[in-house]
Amino acid sequence: MRNMKNWFLVTFFFLALSSGFAQGKITGMIFDDKGALPGANVVIEGTSVGTTSDFDGSFTLNTTAANGKVVISFLGFKTAKVEFSVASGKTVDLGTIVLKSDDNVLGEVVVTSTVIDIAKDRKTPVASSTIKATEIREKLGSQEFPEILANTPSVYVTKQGGGFGDSRINIRGFSQANVAVMINGVPVNDMENGAVFWSNWAGLSDVTSAMQVQRGLGSSKLAISSVGGTINVITRTSDIKQGGSISATMGNDDFIKTVASYSTGKMKNGFSASVLLSNTAGDGYVNGTKFQGQNYFIGLGYQFNEKHDLQFTFTGAPQWHNQRSFANHLGTYLKFGQGGEPNIKYNSDWGYLNGEEFSWARNYYHKPVASLNYDFKINDRMKLSSVVYGSWGRGGGTASGGKSPFSYKTASGTVPFNDFVDFNSGTYNSATGQTVAPFITGPQVAPNANGEYVTSRSVGFTRVANVNSHDWYGAVINLNTKLTDKLTLDFGIDARTYTGYHFRVVSDRLGADAYNANLATGTGGSYVANDINNPVQTFYQSYDATPSFNPFSNVKDLEKIEFNNNGLVRWYGAFSQLEYSTEKLSAFIQGAISQQGFKKEDAYTYLLSDPLHETGYENILGGNVKGGANYNINEQHNVFANAGYYSKQPFFNAVYPNRRSIVNGNLVNEKILGFEAGYGFRSAKFNASVNGYYTNWKDRYQRANDAAADNVGGYYDFTGITEIHSGVEVELNAKPLPKLGLNAMVSVGDWKYSGNSKSNRYDINNQSLDGGTSPTLYLNNIKVGDVAQTTASIGANYEVVRNLKVDANYRYSDKLYASISPDKFGTEVNKGTLELPSYGLMDAGISFKINTTKDSKDYFTMRFNVNNVLNEVYMSESRTNQFIATENEFNTGTGDGKGVLINGAIVANTNLKGTGNGQYPTYQDYLNRGTYDGIDVRNQVFFGFGRTWNFTFSYNF
């Protein structure tokens, strides 16, 4: 009887327990736009109860909660939340839940225009990485726009001299002049030289919804110069959701940025509008690099009906910033440092003028861009997308003119501008001036018969400005036709016209009354510096180095000195692409052809009676063909491959070398051949991609700045260059826990020259310094420089509690080689490219979000970033290839044992060994004092930034 009673008690206990934890059941199916999505994470919000979807996309969850939300996530897709309500012991079916891919929905913008070429995961056969607006807003802070890509495979980003907007980016070893930058499908690389000046786009991060970097040939249908890759920037549109934001960012060195924006969203009448304004200012991390810039964005849209959509945008970022344009010798950084460590903030281009910061090197520019996008859905199978755009750039950069000023410095190494003012007015006194030895020498400026103090190209000190303005108009039109359910055909045209205005003006007379623009012929009678059609001119006007807010400001009637020419470029192109797509296989073949015409106008160097004062158009045909395929083995594995060939027209300065109006007699197109293959793996918690590439680039023409202190502003022209770039890239993303994300990448490149090249050296006034000869550069198998050939990074982000997130990332750069300095490659026996020390940088940040009320859509966010947390001291680039002298070279005064650093310049014919200025008595003394971190102090380098920080507070409504 007792046993029976105990049995009933136990049974009753378990029944009570079971009823207390009575469960309901939740079922459903997880799909993407291609079918079932196995392995998706399914979790009940606020709990650890979860499961994953089966191979057919189905899932089943048991829950004790009567209602709540199911959270479905999968790497590469937008997270979905679905509400449920289930009674005890019952089952609720949530039906089919379709996850949207993050590839086609980038941030706030749904990419519908076929003018914009976005790579899609497991479909487009190219290597790509996408960064969305949230990450850009959180992590960029006070950094430059390209730096957000620093953790992308085969991407190397540096700040160069460290001025505001002076960053540069390399992809797969190719400079940004050979990386196509597209904004909403519009090409923005300069039409004369392919350059991209990020200071002109300083406000781009404020209006970017997403950015995708496509490495290699890319998916653009246009005949663009994507040798290294393509950077696609998608900006905000007028029809994003209604709301706005106000934010303020502060950081080191008095950095402060304020941004305000508002969007109406798409209204019932089809109209929409979006406006953004911002202001940025600071002192700059590098000494003497103060800056200020504004940004504005206006977007207007109108959707007539489901078939017609019109979007107009107008954006610009007027700015000025002082620069560090000269890469000082490593020994100079050490001279002004402490404790044997370099002063990485040292800048030899600046000083004080009347108590205010003043610099030889100041950039000022305003480049507004207007575009009108029109999308016409003709029918269910045909769509016409077009964009018409215009850009008007006004501004330039300043430099020193007249008597060479670079040997004269104050005790702290700054420029003695007040002494220069005294010199220009005949009152300089070395005993009372700022300048330390060597003192300013030579006759001071004396008054003329009218009592005026007049400087010139050889008398006195003057700050000049090299103006590079332009007017640019273009259009891209694309017709997209779905021939069948599997075949899609694109056909379009690309037309552009460009006029660049290039001249020099007086920016600041530094105390003088006028500037004499008259100058006799140069050495050998080969160069005339004054206006040949107006040979007698004295100018009294100077032009402030600040940007004009008027994009149509007059550039024709300014008083010009030393050069004045216009470069005109016409571009006519056509393109077509055929794409085949099924659930398993997607493939494409694409072809494009373009004709570029180059014209030179120069009524400064040539008489108006000389036909060379205005050339005809030199028309050059080019184009490309490329194709590729992606195969999805199953839901997790895919492989892809692509190949392409480019016949790329040379830049303007190759058509008209030495800035003359005579067409290059050896003009040929550059040839690029590329191959790439890759593998991808995708699951709910882990994604990986691995790809290899090979690029052969022949007949390349390149212009590079001369690093020599005795030829500041000069340059080299290289011809006949061949480069071979190959490598392997790995990119990993994982989400092992619901609140933890991991990322990593590794890229290993082998980038080198093949064969030899010819070089020509010119001064700042385009006068040849080689005596008419073209020396051979022996570059065969030499490593391509100015970039790290091995990079890696690892990072993590973690949500500590709801709305509080922390993240950190460590990136490593190795096999970092110096730029090619031609003086080191004049013989077949040379030491190759100088390798700089490897380095690693850690960045970290914390984000916090607070809703104004529990159910409100308004919220505050706070973000704190620290870049280079460990305060690593590192050289990010070198302009020279000065190796450490061997003991034999040191003792015999041969090879690298010759040439000493004195007062910031190399005295080439003096031996390192000795007891004089810049010499070392013993080899060990040379190793101790003449090298730093394994690098000879005679090298001209730029250091990267040390530890920096920024804090952003924003209100979103």
* SSE class: mainly beta
Total DSSP E strands: 55
Q: Averaged pLDDT, please? A: 89
Q: Judging from the principal axes of the Cα atoms, what is the shape?
A: globular
The share of residues in helices is: under 10%
Strand content: over 45%
Pick out the low-confidence regions: 1-5, 7-21, 103-110, 521-527
Amino-to-carboxy terminus distance = 72 Å
Mind describing the biggest β-sheet?
27 strands, antiparallel
Number of helices: 8
**What is the CA-atom radius of gyration, in angstroms?**
31 Å
Structure description:
The protein is built from 8 helices and 55 strands. The chain is mainly beta and 957 residues long. Strand 3 and strand 4 (50-52) form a beta hairpin. Residues 1-5, 7-21, 103-110 and 521-527 have low confidence and may be disordered.
What's the helix and strand layout?
Blueprint: H1 2-20, E1 24-32, E2 35-36, E3 41-44, E4 50-52, E5 58-63, E6 67-73, E7 80-85, E8 91-98, E9 105-106, E10 109-110, E11 127-132, H2 133-139, E12 155-158, E13 168-171, E14 179-183, E15 186-187, H3 204-207, E16 208-215, E17 229-235, E18 243-251, E19 255-263, E20 271-282, E21 291-303, E22 308-316, E23 319-322, H4 330-335, E24 350-353, E25 356-359, E26 362-366, E27 369-379, E28 382-402, H5 417-424, E29 454-456, E30 461-482, E31 487-508, E32 514-516, E33 538-539, E34 561-581, E35 585-601, E36 618-632, E37 637-648, H6 652-655, E38 670-682, E39 686-705, E40 715-737, E41 740-753, E42 757-762, E43 776-777, E44 787-801, E45 804-817, E46 835-836, E47 839-851, E48 859-867, E49 875-878, H7 887-892, E50 898-902, E51 905-911, H8 923-929, E52 931-932, E53 935-936, E54 941-943, E55 948-956
Parallel strand pairs: 1-8, 14-17, 29-32
Antiparallel strand pairs: 1-2, 1-5, 3-4, 3-6, 6-7, 9-10, 11-16, 12-13, 14-15, 16-17, 18-19, 18-55, 19-20, 20-21, 21-22, 21-23, 22-27, 23-26, 24-25, 26-28, 27-28, 28-30, 30-31, 31-34, 32-33, 34-35, 35-36, 36-37, 37-38, 38-39, 39-40, 40-41, 40-42, 41-44, 42-43, 44-45, 45-46, 45-47, 47-48, 48-55, ...
